[in-house]
Write a structure and sequence with these properties.
mainly alpha, 8 helices, about 5% strand, single chain, about 210 residues
């Protein structure tokens, strides 16, 4: 009952959140300084995409491993203890948890685990020494994006368990929030990430109140 209510509320909010995060991302990129790490991020992103096109079949295991680890991490976040973890080279993978929910099912489709692990490490590196690592951050974002795109199909088990319609509505704003946070960090560090979320909230509330008052 609680999960059903949460999904209903999220379905209502998703269009407003998508609008808010979309405009916040646009503003974050528009205000980016030439000396920010955005170009290096883009270079890393493009370089990995070329690498993916050449060596995709050798990266399948890593894609599956990240996918299942993301399920596991979100399961632990919701105190769903693991009962089993299996990743194979040719037969996919599976993580068994003591219970689940829609966020655990959908986490690999909007949360770039490797990228956020790198982001946490970069927080502890002084800004002057951080810039070269932005190319690696861009490559990790490309890795998650292309591997997730390869997994997205209507018959995918995770999407069916979370609800196909719900997944299609929820995932776009969730991805805007995740990738927008990465790009905001590249353009201005943690202060810019906080500003990105404040701007997204402001735009989301403004369109919601506008629609409510119409």
């Amino acid at each position: 009952m609680i999960e059903r209510t949460a999904k209903a509320v999220i379905l209502v909010l998703c269009p407003f959140l998508g609008y808010g995060f979309g405009f916040a991302l646009y503003e974050s990129l528009a205000r980016a300084r030439p000396e920010s790490g955005l170009l290096l991020f883009g270079f890393g992103f493009a370089a990995f995409y070329a690498f993916w096109l050449l060596f995709r079949k050798w990266l399948v295991f890593i894609c599956t491993l990240e996918h299942e680890i993301t399920h596991l991490l979100f399961g632990l976040l919701f105190l769903k203890l693991p009962r089993g973890f299996r990743v194979t080279l040719h037969e996919g993978g599976h993580v068994k948890l003591k219970g689940s929910n829609f966020l655990i099912y959908l986490a690999p489709y909007f949360f770039p685990t490797i990228s956020f692990a790198l982001l946490i490490l970069l927080v502890f590196i002084p800004p002057d020494y951080r810039t070269p690592a932005y190319a690696l951050l861009g490559a990790s974002a490309a890795f998650h994006l292309v591997s997730t795109w390869a997994d997205l199909r209507p018959g995918q088990t995770d999407l069916r368990k979370a609800g196909l319609i719900f997944s299609l509505v929820f995932l776009p704003p969730a991805n805007l929030a995740a990738y927008g946070s990465l790009l905001a960090f590249v353009t201005g560090g943690l202060p810019q990430v906080a500003d990105f979320w404040r701007t997204a909230a402001s735009y989301s509330i403004s369109i919601f109140t506008f629609q409510a008052g119409a």
